[in-house]
Amino acid sequence: MIVxxxxxxxxxxxxxxxxxxxxxxxxxxxxVDDNSPDGTGELAERLGAERxxxxxxHRPRKAGLGTAYLAGFRHALAQGYDAVGEMDADLSHDPTYxxxxxRALDGADLVLGSRYVPGGGVRNWGLARQIIxxxxxxxxxxxxxxxxxxxxxxxxxxxxxLLERMDLDRVRSNGYSFQIEMxxxxxxxxxxxxEVPIVFVDRRVGQSKLSRQVMLExxxxxxxxxxxxxx
Length: 231
What we know:
Layout: E1 2-6, H1 13-23, E2 29-33, H2 40-49, E3 54-58, H3 65-78, E4 83-86, H4 98-104, E5 110-114, E6 121-123, H5 127-144, E7 156-159, H6 160-166, H7 177-188, E8 193-197, E9 199-201, H8 212-226
Parallel strand pairs: 1-2, 1-4, 2-3, 5-8, 6-9
Antiparallel strand pairs: 4-7, 5-7
């Protein structure tokens, strides 16, 4: 099951669903909608009514990216899925990478769609955002000692057994740092990590959810993880 959090993604969701449908691989999708004012949740229901593989989890209000993913992970585990993935709804994560990521999962517990390995990259980003992203990745890698190139990315696949071992109730991050924390906790458990190159394309429609507050949270969360204050 692929978990896709949404908040005001009305214009992007139909194209994402169409791209996933064209893959013709065996997977289900869970849209976790935070009561989007633009009607994304209702649209997801209409799309799901015609597609048995598309499910919707409605939450009463906007409660953060991290809690949306955790709600989706818990739902997938309760439904008995062997693998659980996460991706953005804004088309920045191209579903055509999923087959390669699924193949990589055969020999790994966690697969990262990585922008910063050979063959990966970003598109339509300004210089400032590139510096922030690469700097954030380098900062978290150095402070946490992470043996991965893209710890801040949000295109991932987890084996069920890994999520069960991680104790999701202990995850504290709820913004940009959620991705760092999940990867860090997985590495601390000694899991096998594979990185598959992806090209991240900046959203064409809608507004980015990345704010100064979210970035500040990430900066502060990294040393808290490193020195064990979240254990």
